[in-house]
Amino acid sequence: MRQIAEEAGVSVQAVSLALRGHPTVSEELRRRVRAIADRLGYRPDPALSALVDHRRFGRSAEPSTLAVVANVRLREFAKPEFVRLLLRGARWRAERLGYRMAYFAQPDFGGMASLSRALEARGVRGVLLLPLEETVPVEGELVWDRFCVVSTDTAWSKRELLCVKVDHGANARLGLEALWAKGSRQIALLVRPTLAEKNQRAYHAAYLDFALTHGMEPMIFPESKVWSPQTVRAWFAGLGADTLLTCGPHFREWAGEAARGRIIAELHLPAGERHRPGVRQNEALVGAVAVDQLHGMLVSHQPGVLRHPWSVLVPGRWAGG
Question: What is the CATH number of the domain that holds 295?
Fold first, then answer.
């Protein structure tokens, strides 16, 4: 830490405060100090911070375990590709910061209140909430004031939590701009209605704004229609679109002959896909940033629901296929 202070031209105490994200330190200094720390390979020791906390404030001396919480059984929660990649990024960042990660499934504890007691008994102070499985209800709420919590899904609580998530609106704009640059002029949007609702229609808002500014006729799958292969195929076949921007996981199979001669680009491009155009969501970066935010809350001692929580939106990147 002394070397960081020398390069930054500030005191060791200022470096310590900057690395902890303390509000008395300017954002410019925080960025400068973190950049130097990353370049020098500096890794804070969470266990040492915990020991200091314990001596000063009587807090638990074991915060080096981060609890990763899902609302499904452990054998199920890493099946979706998005969650697997998010966890890969979270593990990578946690290891760099000196944390261990332990996994907890809400159904194993009968509810969030019981889970809170189990986490507290283990001395856990940091909790990362994974994206929810929509068909499984969340039973109750964590005892928020006992933990520092970062969520990757806004639906975990009616309370507003610090949340790190994909920037769906930015990804839609990214896809639209890339397709426009390649010559597409009649772009249709297909998003499963339940997904559109979960993402607060960010895709729709970005699409309509793009259509307005580019003089393009909007073509959006109506949410009033039944989501089925037959309905989607008939809708797309009747459009004058030259391109489709979609989140439909099986749309190519559904479209059949209607897709012939048209470009189909995906907003959730699978990680291993090399031949189709679309947007990669940077899931691993979402996980890494979530751990960074959680680390900042832990070292600056900010348990509970923050008075003014914020969301960190992580944009994706275009893959041309």
Answer: 3.40.50.2300
Q: Which domain holds residue 272?
A: 168-280
Six token digits for residue 210: 């793009």
For 94-119, b where at least 16 C-beta lie within 10 A, e where not — what string? bebbebebeebbbbebeebeebbeeb
Query: In sequence order, which residues have a C-beta less than 8 Å from that of residue 27 and are 6 or more positions away?
Result: none
Give tens-digit pLDDT for 268-287. 888 777 788 999 999 999 99
Number of domains into which the chain is organized: 3
pLDDT at 126 over 90: yes
pTM attached to this predicted model: 0.76
- φ and ψ at 248, to 5 degrees? -65, 115
**Cβ–Cβ < 8 Å for 29, 18:** yes
Residues 6+ apart with CB under 8 A from 205: 169
